[in-house]
Every structure is written in structure tokens, then in C-alpha cells.
Design goal:
- Keywords: Cell membrane, Membrane, Transmembrane, Transmembrane helix.
- It is found in: Cell membrane.
- By secondary structure, the chain is mostly helical.
- It has two domains: 10-93, no CATH class; 98-377, no CATH class.
- 75% of the residues lie in helices and 0% in strands.
- It has helices at 10-23, 28-42, 48-60, 65-105, 111-122, 124-141, 145-165, 170-186, 209-221, 230-241, 247-259, 267-299, 303-308, 310-329, 331-336, 341-356, 361-377.
- The protein is globular, with a radius of gyration of 21 Å.
Length: 384
């Protein structure tokens, strides 16, 4: 946008970012492409290098990167009010849809609806593996030297193992890997560094509102890598620690998060609905998305320094590969959560669609969901 051009109206900001919120199927890659088409190619609100700068800066931050990029673009266009309006317009369409679907899937739905959820949920493990594999090459290319590569592998393995073995404490491992890499680079050569990070969630009583807020906060403010890294964080709390959902219900929630437009982070609303109804869904969504707005509103004008700050880069170089490992590792508990033989068959078919036939995530989820609905309608067994 040229300095002489008048800024767009807030109505225009709401309409344009709301359109992406309604049509943004496919997760962060689709969101980034649609945002670039809007603010760079069509409206020319931002220059190409300004948009790339926004991508780099928001990827340094924890939480849902594509949501933060949308808020950042709206902030560049209309300041603080524009960020609030544009960010809300981007988030709300998918959030409203996923809460409405949660009411159907978590209530007392007919058998075919349960089969639809069970079928789509069956292929989520394959989607998680695909997401992790897509992130590996770029992360590996940024490494310098044999020592950094060895630590990268260790962080990757630690993230995957933590997902499979530690459940709710995954966030501690992500923070620990970031802290180890930061201390390693700040310590003179030859001195060995050992870092341990211990987190305590004071006030998170067994399944109460404080526990829900803590889970949502971890999803929105402590999930380095965004996207699928939030799945093991949520599963550990929602299923294992607090018992808000069964394994099958959680798989349905993840499938809904993938099959609806908007960021995967909105899956936390389904967890909140299972825990405390509509009020819990709205509270969990507010807590999860609030950090994204605060990061942009308080720090957007400092993004240049954040992106090039050595300590920030060092921390992310440790937490990043651990997050990738966690994404891939989430396939283990997600697969173990499948209780019916036909779900395992759908998982194998979903992997074939994703990896051999190169079908998209949404297409794969919808195909598996349709197959599950047919099996249920024919009298096939359904997960408890």
C-alpha cells in the first residue's frame, strides 16, 4: 500500500479476512497462500518483502503461526483496531462451525454420524506423519556443522519419545530442548551443559476451569511449531489426565479441526465443549487465541530484532526439531486409540491416499469419514 493510498475501511478488513476464515481449508500452507494473494497480489496492502518479513517473524513465535500472520497483516493495514477486527474475522467462521459440530458429535448422534467421526479420526495418525515429514527438509537444511546436526537429532527423538511416553508433560520437553540449545551456544566451548525444565500448573484442579485454561494456554502460547504439535498436548490432558474425552471422541475432535476451515488450534474448542459445554468451548478458544493477539499487538513493531536476535533463534533451533518429533510421535498414541479393525484398515487406506496418491488432507479426511458412515449404516461396530 502506497503512503498516499487511504487505508481500507474496517468493514473491508472484516470482509476480506473473514473470506479467508470461511474458505481456508488445508491448514497453514493454504492460509499463507490466501493471505499473500489478498495483501500482496490483489489489494497491494503490503510489499512482497514486508509479507515475507511477517512470515519469518511469526514463525519465531510460539502458537498458531498462520493465525498470527493474519493478525499481523491486519495490523499493518489498519493498526490495533484492524488487527482485532481482521484476526477475529479470520478465526470466528471456523470456530463457530467446529463448536456446532462438537454439539453434534459429542451429544447423542445417530450411528452414521458416529461412523463419520470414527472414519475421519482413523486417518489422523497418517496426517500427523505427513505433517512431520513435510517439516523435516527445511529444518535440516538450516543446520551448520556436525555438532548441531547431532543435537538436532537428539531434540527430534526427545520430542517424539515425549509424545509417546509423557503425554501432558510434552511442553516441558519442548522448553527444555530450547533451553539446552540456548545454553549450549552461550557456554564456552568444552563446557558441558545440562538443562532441566520443570513446570508446575498451580491451581489446575482435576478437570476444573483452571485445568481447562491451563490446557488452552499451553496450546496457544507454548506450542512451538503450531499445527499438529498441539495434538499430543491436548490428548495428554483431555484424555489421560482429566478424562474429559474418550480416545474416540478426541480423534473426532482432531478430524473436525482438520476438516473445517481456519487454524488447527480451534480444536481446543471441542475439548472445552467436552469438558464444560458451550461455556467451556468459548473459554478455551479465548484463552488459546488471546496470546496470538498479544504477541502481535505488543511486539509487531519489534519483529526485526526478534527475528535476528541470537538467543531467540537459538531457543527455536532447539524447540523446533523437538516439536517436529512431537508431531510425528503423536501418530503412536493416535493409532493406539483406534479400537476397531476397520479403523486400522481405513488408516492404511488413508496413508495410501496421502503418500502414494498425493491426495490432500481434507480430501482424505472426508473420504475416510464417508467410508466410516457407510460402515456404521451397514451395522458395523463403532468405537465406544
Amino acid at each position: 500500500m502506497r503512503a498516499t493510498d487511504p487505508p481500507p475501511s474496517l468493514g473491508t478488513v472484516a470482509r476480506e479476512f473473514g473470506r479467508i476464515g470461511c474458505l481456508g481449508f488445508g491448514g497453514p500452507p493454504a492460509h499463507v497462500s490466501m493471505l499473500r494473494e489478498l495483501v500482496v497480489a490483489r489489494r497491494r496492502w503490503l510489499a512482497e518483502d514486508d509479507f515475507e518479513h511477517g512470515i519469518a517473524a511469526t514463525n519465531v513465535l510460539p502458537g498458531p503461526a498462520s493465525t498470527q500472520l493474519a493478525i499481523y497483516c491486519a495490523w499493518r493495514v489498519r493498526g490495533i483496531v484492524g488487527a482485532l477486527v481482521g484476526g477475529a474475522a479470520f478465526i470466528l467462521p471456523g470456530l463457530v462451525l467446529i463448536i456446532a459440530l462438537a454439539a453434534v458429535f459429542l451429544g447423542d448422534p445417530p450411528a452414521w454420524v458416529r461412523g463419520l467421526g470414527a472414519g475421519a479420526g482413523a486417518v489422523v495418525a497418517a496426517v500427523a506423519v505427513q505433517a512431520a515429514l513435510a517439516l523435516l527438509p527445511g529444518s535440516w537444511r538450516r543446520l551448520e556443522g556436525r555438532g548441531q546436526r547431532a543435537r538436532w537429532i537428539a531434540y527430534l527423538v526427545a520430542g517424539g519419545a515425549a509424545t509417546a511416553l509423557l503425554g501432558p508433560w510434552l511442553v516441558a520437553v519442548l522448553l527444555a530442548c530450547g533451553a539446552i540449545e540456548l545454553l549450549w551456544r552461550r557456554t564456552p566451548r568444552g563446557v558441558h551443559v545440562h538443562a532441566w525444565v520443570v513446570l508446575a500448573a498451580a491451581g489446575a484442579s482435576a478437570g476444573g476451569l483452571a485445568a481447562l485454561c491451563w490446557t488452552a494456554f499451553k496450546v496457544g502460547a507454548l506450542s512451538y511449531g503450531g499445527g499438529f504439535v498441539i495434538i499430543p498436548l491436548m490428548q495428554g490432558d483431555a484424555v489421560e489426565r482429566y478424562g474429559w474425552m474418550t480416545d474416540g471422541e478426541f480423534l473426532n475432535a482432531v478430524a473436525l479441526g482438520q476438516a473445517t476451515p481456519g487454524p488447527v488450534t480451534q480444536t481446543i474448542a471441542v475439548v472445552g465443549y467436552a469438558a464444560h459445554g458451550l461455556g467451556g468451548a468459548l473459554l478455551a478458544a479465548f484463552v488459546a487465541f488471546a496470546p496470538s493477539f498479544w504477541f502481535i499487538l505488543l511486539g509487531a513493531d519489534r519483529f526485526d530484532r526478534l527475528r535476528t536476535q541470537p538467543d531467540a533463534r537459538a531457543f527455536l533451533d532447539g524447540a523446533g526439531p523437538a516439536a517436529i518429533g512431537a508431531i510425528g510421535g503423536s501418530a503412536i498414541p493416535l493409532t493406539l486409540a483406534l479400537s476397531e479393525t476397520w479403523q486400522l484398515a481405513l488408516l492404511a487406506a488413508g496413508a495410501l491416499l496421502l503418500f502414494a496418491l498425493r491426495r490432500g488432507t481434507v480430501t482424505t479426511l472426508l473420504t475416510a469419514g464417508a467410508a466410516g458412515a457407510v460402515i456404521a449404516a451397514a451395522g458395523g461396530p463403532l468405537p465406544a
